[in-house]
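The pair is set out directly below:
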Amino acid sequence: MGILEIYDDTKFYPAAVALEVTLRCNMRYLHCGSSAGENKEGLGISHGQYKELVEFICESQKEEREGRISIKTMPADSIGYCHSSAIDVWDDLEWGGCNAGRYVIGIQSNGNVSGCLSLQHDSFIVGNVRKRNLKDIREDNEAFSYTRGFRKDKLCGSCKDCSKGDECNSGCLAMGYSSTGELYNNPYCYKNIVENTAHGEPVEP
């Protein structure tokens, strides 16, 4: 049974809570999950490199299943999504949209709560555990509307007309937002990158 099957979507009990312990890291890059410091230019990966990464994970998992290697490679939930050749990266899990605020909660070192530590803009903050109980924040019907209130008509940019929009919900919101400044527009989508490559379009961001 996949982890997303365990929880009732109407309750949104988190399966993981991430706690940020410092704001002094000086290694931040484009998609870093910390709110420390400013982005450093040139540290993000290209679409071509992203495609290679997904394919490497798929191949590594195949080798592990066949007994050729003993280490199993498991991606985070910002990899893969709805392309048929990338389904294996999720193993027995079924992608059902970004988990931020649904099954994951991030707590910053100052107590601010957001759906995920990678969602760094202040607009994603829904409360502070120094001022309000985490249970009350989690169960607030107005909180985490960026994932709990998703509708397909919110999709934009490279995700707007995607045939998998209902399933994918634009993938990892942090990937899209950190890349484009928009929610529901994720240029780091393996499905779109592969399809664009097949049509002769460039794979670079």
The beta strands are 16-19, 104-107, 112-114, 125-128.
